[in-house]
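User: structure tokens for this one?
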Amino acid sequence: MSSFDTSAFFETVGWSAAAVAVVLLATFGCAKIAGRHNVIDTTWGLLFVTAAVVSFVCSAGYGDGLRRYLLLLLPGLWGLRLAYYVLRRSLGKGEDPRYDEMLNKAKGNRDLYALRMVYVLQGLLALVISSPIIVGAFEPRPLRVVGWLGVAVWAVGLFFEAVGDAQMQTWRADPAHKGQVIDVGLWRYTRHPNYFGDACVWWGTFLIAADSLPGVVTIYAPIIMTLLLTKGSGARILEKHMSKRDGWEEYAARTSMFFPLPPRKPRAAA
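Assistant:
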């Protein structure tokens, strides 16, 4: 274990891609049975679990043992928690309006269009964002300070994501809050504690791999995930929907959009 094994690494990339493809095809089959394509939202976290398991198995005898276990357990815990949360939230509900809107643009077969624009695209994104996991599993050097910093950042991220989701679930369970904007707990400090936590999880995962080269090169992975969460299908679309609710403008004016900050005081009337 004196150097990074490029040949074994690229072989693992191939196995990871094949495993992710199998999971996506199984998800597509489930979506056809269920009659809704938002089933893939549950599978999103499982795609990273799949990449982590394949990387752990294939890197045996190549990468540092501690880093390999961290890059198996941390993404695994994150992905399984997210999949369980999304599954519980979606049970008994119909298709997500986002997918209906997208599929209405299909000029041919809707299922083939969904397979190309939803499943293949998410599979490719998952593989790219999983780069720190796959690369890090083959790094032979022992874990150092940067790696342990990554574990701490990951833990902060999981806290914000899990606690934020739990607070939202509790808020929605109260009928008195229907149509209102949540402004309690972590949601007082950021309009998207779950998305902020998700970003921290992937910056932490990157730092575990960035202890040494070539892990540093995978910095594009957390950048892509952060952009997806803030500018892509995450906060941007959610805020467009939330802006129709009463009290949203006041809440947005005093609450940080992404990074947790103390609530801003309202400006005095002129």
